[in-house]
Amino acid sequence: MHLVILTSLDAMSRNSAAALVAGTANGTPVVLHDLLDGGVVTRRIHRNDRIVERESRVLEHGCLSCTVRFDLAPALLRLASEGVERAVVGLPPGTTAENAIDGLHSIAPGAFVVDAVALALRPEDVEDQLWDHHTLFASGYTAVPEDARTPGEFLMGELLFADTVLTTVSDLLPTDAALDARGLQLIGELAPHARISAAGAGTLARHDYGASQAQSLPGEVHVPTIASAPFRTLEHRIARPLHPGRFRTALGAVSEGCCFVRGSVWIASMPDTRVAVHGVGPRISLGDGGTWTAAECHGGWNRGTHLALTGDALDDDDITGLLDACALTDDELRSSPAYSHPTSENH
Question: Which domains does the chain have, with CATH numbers?
Fold first, then answer.
């Protein structure tokens, strides 16, 4: 069965996009799932704008992944057994497309072919969603209290993984043309790989799972060749290892006002570890990006710092000055484990 996967932060954008996508192929079923309070999952199947099936059930473990495993996959397999060759799947808000695809393939290997992964959203909402400091649950996007992700973290992850961004409008609220244009510019800066189109107005980009995964890896940097003013991305590289204390202090200052920060850092006290930096809106984190490879060359070493910061009011001199000051001095470098590491070239 061929699938179009729709992911979103809000059900209204998802529903609108699903109806328009399905409208291009008469009779294509639209399968929508929503996870409600108390672990209740609802499933609705639409055909030609009519609800042909509606069911609710209580999951023992009311989580987003359980919705895929215990309801979405069985429903799609049943449709496939009835001869359905293509379906549009609207995931519950907060469910990542990557987890849904992995879940479907693990349950029924070879049964599904994902033709497209599209993120449905209202452009004028994007900037506020990136800067929302509440959790998905606290902001009302999911019914899972344990979900500690912010709306921005979910949205940025889907922007990186999706091949297409489908823009929608609200049936309840008027569109602010200026905010809408600003949101489109921001999306273009954050997801230069994605095809952006109004829902129902264009074709969907073909899904490439390998490319989507690569773009989503911790510490990966992908920037547009042309900036989407007023937003732009500053890239900065440092060949020497960084002092852990100075970098920890500088990170908060350089990321202030940046809606997206990503990249890899070489910390002197962790010479073998590629530290991945990932920051969306008000939240920034450091993680294990694996070990350095010979292909990653910065200056005389096969490791180094490469950061990209996206915003609309970047002070290049201030940011690069703060980051450069984190590099080890000559004296610090001579006493650092990174200096004597066998895979580094000493000067």
Answer: 2-216 (3.40.50), 232-334 (3.30.1220.10)
Query: Which tokens is 292 given?
Result: 């350095």
Mean pLDDT of 163-171: 92
pTM for the structure as a whole? 0.91
pLDDT value, residue 143: 87
> To 10 degrees, what angle do helices 151-161 and 177-190 make?
60
Q: Is residue 200 exposed (0-12), middle (13-18) or buried (19+ Cβ within 10 Å)?
A: middle
DSSP 8-state assignment for residue 323: H
Closest of 243, 301, 291, 239 to residue 267, by C-alpha = 243
